[in-house]
Amino acid sequence: NAGVTQTPKFRVLKTGQSMTLLCAQDMNHEYMYWYRQDPGMGLRLIHYSVGEGTTAKGEVPDGYNVSRLKKQNFLLGLESAAPSQTSVYFCASSYEGVQPQHFGDGTRLSIL
Amino acid sequence: RKEVEQDPGPFNVPEGATVAFNCTYSNSASQSFFWYRQDCRKEPKLLMSVYSSGNEDGRFTAQLNRASQYISLLIRDSKLSDSATYLCVARRGNKLTFGTGTQLKVEL
After folding, report:
1. To the nearest whole angstrom, how far is the Cα of B91 from the nearest Cα of chain A?
2. How far is B65 from chain A (nearest CA, A)?
3. Whole-number Å distance between alpha carbons of A23 and B53
4. Minimum CA–CA partner of A43 in chain B
5. Which residues of chain B lie closer than 8 angstroms to A102, CB-CB?
């Protein structure tokens, strides 16, 4: 019973490099979310999806893109990484938008 | 002003003590509320939902005051294992807004 799985767990990038973070859930949840967590800022919503094939912007979407080609997967892309994107990234999912969200264990990303 | 505000703490309490956290929210359109717990370098985990009538789960009691726009969490008989950061969360539509958390340290 894996729940929400994020890969990779850690990554160091150089400025300008690109990468994709993968989130997979096995709970048949419709809704999926990507957050970033920075000291003193709390969790902030980057992008979210209310179902397969849909995506929407959250509070801090600039510099990120997402895709939800399959219901169980939600990908977060950084096209040209910047030091300001150094953060801990969490993926979450929920059965419906009104239900509590279940989180993955995070990806620690450092951009040099 | 942040949409959800919490005292960052830390609250240092002895084992067995009762401790209470408050959280205020600014958007009256917020529809429901949760408390999440986050251990150091771990993911947030749902602790409990917060209902208008108040609700209890073992040693934990949550209250919502819509008129004053605040939420509270009471922990009785604190355990060492309760040491964590407690996140207050407000839902509006299908989005959650998280507070920055209140840190609790339970000591021997």
Report:
1. 8
2. 20
3. 36
4. B98
5. 46
Write the CA distances from A78 to A18, A61, A66, B54, integer angstroms.
5, 11, 9, 42
Name the residue with tokens 């690109």. Answer: A18
User: Chain B: nearest CA to A39, how far in angstroms?
Assistant: 8
Give the pairing of strands A107-111 and A87-94.
Answer: antiparallel
Ramachandran sector of residue A78 (left: φ over 0; alpha: ψ -120 to 50; beta: rest) = beta
Q: Which of residues 24-63 of B touch A (CB under 8 A)?
A: 31-32, 34, 42-46, 49
Distance between CA atoms of A110 and A108, rounded to whole angstroms? Answer: 7
Q: What is the pLDDT of residues B51-103, one digit of tens each?
A: 888 899 999 999 999 999 999 999 999 999 999 999 999 999 888 899 999 99
Give chain B's end-to-end CA distance (angstroms, integer): 37
Q: What's the CA angle centered on A94, arms B39 and A22, to 5 degrees?
A: 75
Token readout for B73 is: 């969490």
pLDDT 10s digits, B2-18: 899 999 999 999 999 99
* Cβ within 8 Å, pair B96-A45: yes
Top pLDDT among B100 and A40 is at B100
